[in-house]
Amino acid sequence: MRRFSLNYNPREYFKEFHNRAKRFTFLCAHRRSGKSYAAAADLVMRALNTRKTRAQFVFAAPTAA
User: Fold this and answer.
1) DSSP state of 15
2) Which one of 14, 45, 59, 62 is most buried, by most CB atoms within 10 A?
3) For residue 39, which of 47, 53, 65 has the smallest C-alpha distance?
4) Is 2 helix (H, G, I), strand (E, B) or coil?
């Protein structure tokens, strides 16, 4: 299987988030810390590197309205 990588360097405090083994997680950080960017990059990395067939991924976030 081919491995993919992104041109993405996570901030120091998100490295533990990216190296987790859990399926679900919760991020609690200040409002301009890059939570959405880190979560989207994590989703793309896991989707590109999965070995599962017919895998599905979702990014769910609240909206202002």
Assistant:
1) H
2) 14
3) 47
4) coil
DSSP state of 31: T
Question: Per residue, what are the HEC states of 32-61?
Answer: CCCHHHHHHHHHHHHHHCCCCCCCCCCCCC
Q: Are 46 and 25 in contact (CB under 8 A)?
A: no
Sign of CA pseudo-dihedral 38, 58, 45, 18: positive
The predicted structure's pLDDT at residue 20 = 93
Angle made by CA atoms 32, 10, 65, in degrees to the nearest 5: 35
41 Cβ contact partners less than 8 Å away, ≥ 6 residues apart: 6, 8, 10
The predicted model gives 4-15 an average pLDDT of 86
